[in-house]
From TrEMBL:
Lineage start: Bacteria, Pseudomonadati, Bacteroidota, Flavobacteriia, Flavobacteriales
Family matches, as SUPFAM superfamilies: C-terminal effector domain of the bipartite response regulators, PYP-like sensor domain (PAS domain)
Transcription regulation keyword on record: yes
Keywords: DNA-binding, Transcription, Transcription regulation
SMART domains: HTH_LUXR
Protein known as: PAS domain-containing protein
Listed PANTHER family: DNA-BINDING TRANSCRIPTIONAL ACTIVATOR DEVR_DOSR
A GO term, aspect molecular function: DNA binding
Length: 234
């Protein structure tokens, strides 16, 4: 897991732990200033142990229309209420599991979903969550990007960005083609039907199904659909 010295200075020294303790007040001040002054990226810092937001960039108001104080005071409950209802349940579950899980093997995830602005407009955002152990603190850094224009362009091109996608969440690494196959499987398509729809051979379609079952560490297609549905919107 990354440390404070690396965050602020991008360095890695053998005595980094000692430097952390000595420099932490200075580093923390620098990180918070960078967060609050960010213009191009929405950034917020959440204290895992205190269960509260410590800082939030002014860019939330510039890009989404919400004041930093609304995010800090309202917390995750306020944020979850802004998410598209079709995505809210799974997004809330994944963020909560990531933040409050006792297992700290995974230090980062990313999510794509829609947020409603005060004007009623839907913004498509990419949300990156990074965990950092700093001295005796565990901080969650949130980086959010407005992908609305990209979504509009890709819609014109007939391509859809996955609304909810986090293939690194539980060490499940699937390709875009495997994701296509997975969604068709979830919709009841047989391997032959998948092959016809995607213009691939029946053998390739069957291989994709087999690999997905292996990657999700399940025993059959029914378990695959159930497990995948818990992790992403199909």
């Amino acid at each position: 897991m990354k440390n404070a010295y690396q965050i602020a200075y991008g360095k890695s020294n053998a005595d980094v732990l000692a430097r952390e303790e000595l420099l932490w007040p200075e580093i923390k001040k620098k990180i918070f200033k960078l967060c609050e002054c960010s213009k191009n990226i929405m950034i917020s810092i959440f204290d895992i142990r205190k269960k509260t937001f410590l800082s939030c960039s002014c860019s939330y108001e510039d890009l989404l229309g919400y004041r930093p104080a609304e995010i800090i005071d309202g917390g995750w409950k306020f944020w979850y209420n802004l998410i598209d209802p079709r995505e809210a349940r799974i997004i809330q579950k994944q963020i909560s599991n990531f933040i409050f899980s006792r297992q700290r093997e995974i230090n980062s995830i990313y999510l794509n979903y829609h947020i409603k602005t005060p004007s009623g407009k839907w913004c498509f955002i990419k949300h990156e969550l990074e965990l950092y152990h700093i001295n005796n603190e565990i901080l969650l850094l949130n980086y959010l990007y407005d992908f609305s224009d990209r979504e509009s362009i890709e819609k014109c091109l007939g391509k859809k960005i996955n609304s909810v996608y986090y293939n690194n969440l539980l060490d499940v690494d699937i390709s875009s083609r495997e994701l296509e196959v997975l969604k068709l499987i979830a919709n009841g398509f047989s391997s032959k039907q998948i092959a016809d729809k995607l213009y691939i051979s029946g053998h390739t379609a069957t291989s994709h199904r087999k690999h997905l079952i292996e990657k999700f560490k399940v025993n059959n297609t029914a378990q695959l659909i159930k497990r995948a549905s818990e992790l992403m919107q199909l």
